[in-house]
């Protein structure tokens, strides 16, 4: 019974964060929602007693791919909008 409740809870977390990946307009929030989704998938592997696969899920996907996405988001941010806002506020 507890396994079913835990599965239903993490299924709701996975589905809502996957919807957040698609629906968020800000790429930073989409990346964070992707991280939550990938971590909840690792919980499914732990529930199936596949600890090695869960650890690889966390290390490879959350640790590697999500950090790569974070760097890509930081490097592609448009800095001209920040400069324009500071010039407007100073005058």
Please characterize this protein's 3D structure.
By secondary structure, the chain is mainly α. Helix content is 87%, strand content 0%. The protein is built from four helices and no strands. It has helices at 2-23, 27-47, 51-75, 80-90. Helix 1 packs antiparallel against helix 2 (27-47) and helix 2 (27-47) runs antiparallel to helix 3 (51-75). The chain is elongated.
**What does the average pLDDT come to?**
88
Secondary-structure-derived class: mainly alpha
Query: What is the tally of beta strands?
Result: 0
Order of helices and strands: HHHH
Give the biggest beta sheet: none
Estimate the global geometry from the Cα principal axes: elongated
CA radius of gyration is 18 Å
From the N-terminal CA to the C-terminal CA, the straight-line distance is: 64 Å
What share of residues is helical? over 70%
Alpha plus pi helix count:
4
Percent strand = under 5%
Low-confidence stretches: none
């Amino acid at each position: 019974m507890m396994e079913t409740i835990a599965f239903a809870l993490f299924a709701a977390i996975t589905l809502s964060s996957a919807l957040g990946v698609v629906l968020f307009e800000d790429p930073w929030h989409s990346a964070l929602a992707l991280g939550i989704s990938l971590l909840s998938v690792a919980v499914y592997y732990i529930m199936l007693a596949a600890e090695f696969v869960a650890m690889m899920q966390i290390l490879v996907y959350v640790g590697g791919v999500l950090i790569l996405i974070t760097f890509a988001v930081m490097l592609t941010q448009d800095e001209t909008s920040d400069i324009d806002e500071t010039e407007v506020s100073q005058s």
